[in-house]
Amino acid sequence: MKQAIHFGGGNIGRGFIGELLVRSGYEVTFVDVAETLVDEINARHAYHIEVVGNEPKTIHVEHVKAINSNMNLEELLDAFVTADIVTTAIGPNILKFIAPNIAKGLARRVKKNEAPLNIIACENMVGGSTVLKNFVYEHLADDVKAKVDRCIGFPDAAVDRIVPIQHNEDPLLVKVEPFCEWDVDRTGVVGAEPQIEGLTWVDNLEAYIERKLFSVNTGHASIAYMAYLKGIEDIAAAMQDEEIVSFVRRVWAETSELLIEKYGFDREKHAAYIRTAEERFKNPHLSDAVTRVARGPKRKLGAKDRLVSPASQLIERGKKPEALATVIAAALRFDYADDPEAVEVQNYVKEHGLEKAITHFTEIPAGTELFDLILAKNAELKK
């Protein structure tokens, strides 16, 4: 069998990337530091995935094993020599911590095997593989870097699958939604593109990153902030509220116009993508607390993030993003006391006023069309 190394034995690793790799003929070695998890995988060499939704099903996944990188580093380094692909799903903040071991593994590999190898970071971030590559190169000797440049690819990826918060009696069981998407930039590949079921190789990854960000993430945030203002506690309940559903469809209408105009997405196919997103949020098995989805307003209000970026781009194209401006105003009113970022935003508003807060958190200049639109929408929300 082909050999895959996957960093991260958690729910995304087992319930998404690992399963697609096994389905595509790979034996998957999960790399983790959770001793109990590693031991359980090695005791069974298999686990189950439950797909939850209108058509539930159970998937049996086998041909798996695990390495504890804290206890069996030599085994991990040897695995790099024969690996056919390396993937990660560990969280953006952990990439720098696995980089030293990846660097050691690559140094051992290129001494013995110069066959092409691609390393794909499947993280909820932009340019994850490139970020990982930079961390790895910090730990490579110059002569090794030259070989790695020739043999090792770090193609960036965009991934999307909702894995709900869960507490299962079986420690290896993972519950996931039916939908999943894994897009990878073919321009970053070294050698032939690995053929993996469920993975789509694309020429313009930015288009797919923004499609996901401005559709799924923007929609999710929009539902959460508007639901919070109405006192609704979870996303599935919010999606039973006709006013909120109607509103998020207006948000999607705005972002859809931007994406279709900017990237040339087929209008009917994109409409189907939006309908799928709406059904995902209606799935009661995937419902999340409104306050958890809305958390981190400081980050979500960033100039390049899910709310301000599409609104700004629409303004540049001569369009008026009424719904997006409303969400931005609602995010600035998110005052959940248990969220440190929400507290920070509210304290800034109290101390400096809303107008300065808008520019401080969104980088939208005072007096611009979008700035004035947000102020107007805030006044409407007050009523």
What can you tell me about this protein's structure?
With 383 residues, the protein is an alpha/beta fold. The protein has two domains: 2-203, NAD(P)-binding Rossmann-like Domain (Rossmann fold, 3-Layer(aba) Sandwich), CATH 3.40.50; 206-382, N-(1-d-carboxylethyl)-l-norvaline Dehydrogenase, domain 2, CATH 1.10.1040.10. 53% of the residues lie in helices and 15% in strands. It has a six-stranded parallel beta sheet with strand order 5-2-1-6-7-8, with helices on both faces. A three-stranded mixed beta sheet has the order 4-3-10. The longest helix is centred in the middle third of the chain and has 25 residues, at 205-229. It is globular and about 65 Å long. The N and C termini lie far apart (63 Å). The mean pLDDT is 96. Residues 204-345 form the Mannitol dehydrogenase C-terminal domain.
Overall form: globular
Distance between the termini: 63 Å
Helical proportion, percent range: 40-55%
> Architecture of the largest domain, according to CATH?
3-Layer(aba) Sandwich
On the 0 to 100 scale, the average pLDDT is 96
Number of helices: 17
CATH T-level fold name of the largest domain: Rossmann fold
| Percentage beta strand | 5-15%
Provide the structure class.
alpha/beta
Number of strands: 12
Tell me the strand order in the biggest sheet. 5-2-1-6-7-8
| Low-confidence residue ranges | none
Secondary-structure element series: EHEHEEEHEHEHHEEEEEHHHHHHHHHHH
Fourth-tier CATH superfamily name of the largest domain: NAD(P)-binding Rossmann-like Domain
- Largest sheet, strands/sense/barrel: 6 strands, parallel
Classified by CATH, the class of the largest domain is Alpha Beta
* Count of separate structural domains: 2
Using only CA atoms, what is the Rg?
Answer: 22 Å
